[in-house]
Amino acid sequence: MRILITNDDGINAPGLEVLSQIAGQLAGPQGEVWTVAPAFEQSGVAHCISYTHPTMIARLSERRYAAEGSPADCVLAAIADVMARTPPDLVLSGVNRGNNSGENAMYSGTVGGAMEAALQGLPAVALSQYLGPRTADLADPFEAARTHGAAVIQRLLDHGDWTSDEDFRLFYNVNFPPCPSAEVRGVRVAPQGRRQGARFGVVPYEAPNGRRFMWVSGGSQQAPARAGSDVAVNMEGYVSVTPMRADLTCHASLDGLARALNGAAAPCVAEAGEPG
C-alpha cells in the first residue's frame, strides 16, 4: 500500500512522527509512506487552498516534502506533482495535537486535508489526539493514538464505506480520547457534536505602536456535548469515528423548504403602459 500523510501542525510536529509510524504499520514492509506537510503550522485553516498565490514546495529527503501552504494544498501538491506518477492508495491527515471533535471539525486543517483527498476521489482519514488533564503528565501525550491508531484505521479499511459513486465521497474523522492508552475503552461510531457554551472568540490587543490586533481564543474543551456525540464518547474514554463528506446541505430541511418555495412566483415590476 502507498500512503500519503499530511497534517496542519507542520512538518516537524510530533504528531506527524506518530502518523508516520501508524502509516508504516499499515503499509507494511513492501509499502511506501510519503509525506507532504506544511512547512509551518496551519492550525485552524480548515479546507483553505492557496488560490491567489503560488506555493513553494521543497524536497527534504526521500518521499518527504514540505510545502508553504495549507494541508489541502499539500494534498493537491502530492496528487498533481510529487506523486503524480504513483498516486496514493490512502491519505492520512494528523495526528493533530488536540481534538477535532464537535465544532472543532469545522475549523480543522487536519480535517481539511482529508476532505480534499476525498474530493480528489481518494480514501482518507483525519486523526486527532484529544488532550486533557489525564494526558498532561504522560511522557507521550499521543500515547492513545500511537497505540491504537493502526488497528482503528485497519478496521475502517476492512469495514468502512469506501464507495466512490456518490457525488461526495465519504472520509472519516477519528479522535483518540484524552486518557492513557491502557484506559481506552474501545471504538464508538458517533455523529459530530457541539460543546455547550463553548465558542471561539476574540481578545483585542493594542500594540506599543498604537495599532490594534486581536488574538482568537477558544472555549473549554471539557464542556459537555450531546450524549452519544463524538465529544461525549471521547470524554468517556472511547475512540470516536465519524463518517463525513464535503456536503453542507441540510437534507432534513429540503422537502419542507421546497414545498414552501418551489414554484412561488417572484415579484415583478410592470413596465410603463402595462397593467400593474
Automatic annotation (TrEMBL):
This is 5'-nucleotidase SurE. Its cofactor is a divalent metal cation. It comes from the Bacteria. Binds 1 divalent metal cation per subunit. InterPro entries: SurE (IPR030048), SurE-like_Pase/nucleotidase (IPR002828), SurE-like_sf (IPR036523). The keyword 4Fe-4S does not apply. Keywords: Cytoplasm, Hydrolase, Metal-binding, Nucleotide-binding. It is found in: Cytoplasm. A divalent metal cation binds at D8, D9, S43, N96. NCBIfam families: PRK00346.1-4, PRK13931.1, surE. It catalyses: a ribonucleoside 5'-phosphate + H2O = a ribonucleoside + phosphate. GO terms for molecular function: 3'-nucleotidase activity. Its EC number is 3.1.3.5. Residues 3-196 form the Survival protein SurE-like phosphatase/nucleotidase domain.
